[in-house]
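User: My collaborator and I are trying to settle a disagreement about how two of our proteins should look. Neither of us wants to argue from intuition anymore, so we agreed to look at predicted structures for both before our next call. Could you fold the first one, then the second, and keep them clearly separated?

Assistant: That sounds like a sensible way to settle it. I'll keep them separate. The first protein:
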Amino acid sequence: MLAAILVISGASVFTSCSSDNDDNSVSQPRERVIAFEGIENGRDMGGLVMQDGRTIRFDMLVRSGKLSTATDADVAILTSRYRLSNVFDFRFDAEVAASPDRVIDGVSNTQLSTMPRVIIEAYTSGSSSSGQTDPSDQGDLLLQRAFDPQMQAMARGLYPAIVADADAQARYGEFLRGVLAAKGGVLWHCSQGKDRAGWGSAFVLAALGASRQVIVEDFDLSNQSYANKVEALSAQVRDKEGGDEAVAFIRAIIGVSRENFEATLDLIDQQYGSLSAYIENQLGFSLEAQQQLRAKYLQ
């Protein structure tokens, strides 16, 4: 939801993998981006290649934006193609109350807020008058906040705050255990499916054995989904004679910050030893559980 962003990723959204859960012997191109009608920033985690040469199976793991705008066609994709059984919602209470996920028959929806309390308070403090809790939907408020040094600093500090927050750690650990236990397809999301969902994806990928490059490129792909909106609001900031920090704030709120994401991965290495150690010790997802996750989702 926050942090400074640099460029739109050029990473390919195409991979080679099977198109069917039950027959993984045929290799063919697959597009990871899912063409939902009402759900933003949806993509299949399938086809990504792990360090041991195995790939994630398609049609099992999905990341996206909130499901409140899901259409009947979107639900049909999730229930037929993905045989969805579990949804994990990383939004906080006010976000969920304002835009509750669409109920999907037979699907368990678990809310696991991973936003640090201090960030929640900062965002909701300026949102009550508009009746909105998602700052990405508040154009005028965004432009105002873009010039606020305190908000700019908070944007830069969001990712370190998430990974250091004990409650967020516990909930991401619960999420990983839920992914392992799921009986069908799994979808996780936050509001826009980029920051909190992006960290959830990073933890899944790391537990599956992905390289840092694969993790970073998947995180950065969210910028492609929001490129037009980023540029439109950035142009308004420039029209108001905003500097680089103001433009970076807009880009961070609407897109993601690859630079801040990589810096936070470095911070994890420095403070916790490695991302793998962080997942095992801070998130409580054991090496044995990680091996079980790989057996379930890799081919």
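The second protein, kept apart from the first:
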Amino acid sequence: MQALRGLAFLLLVQALGEGITHGLGLPFPGPVVGLVILLPALGWAWVREPVAAMAELLLGHLSLLFVPVGVGVITHLQLVSQYGAQLLVVIVLSTWIGLAVTALVLRQLLREEPTQEKPAQEDSHG
């Protein structure tokens, strides 16, 4: 029952994101706006616990989510054979760019972390 509440909340947040995106004419997907809305909402236990239960369920069956992709590749095998090299280059480059941006953002976030100064130690050689 907890996972069902989590699924309902995730769908609600996604629909809210879609509504905001379409209503304001934003140039990015509604689910992204939904995730931005979800992030602060996870601070509340009554949201976090059902969403965590649903996340556990989805992660337990993650391999099933790749079935449509595999079927799509097999269905469009001619396109894959025709543009396979270009697809591979785009996938590799976009992965590298994503990793580089993530590393740069992490480096910047770690650099901005406040450092605690150590108190000066007195010389005990007296």
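Some points you might bring to the call about the second protein. DSSP finds five helices and no strands in the chain. The radius of gyration is 23 Å.
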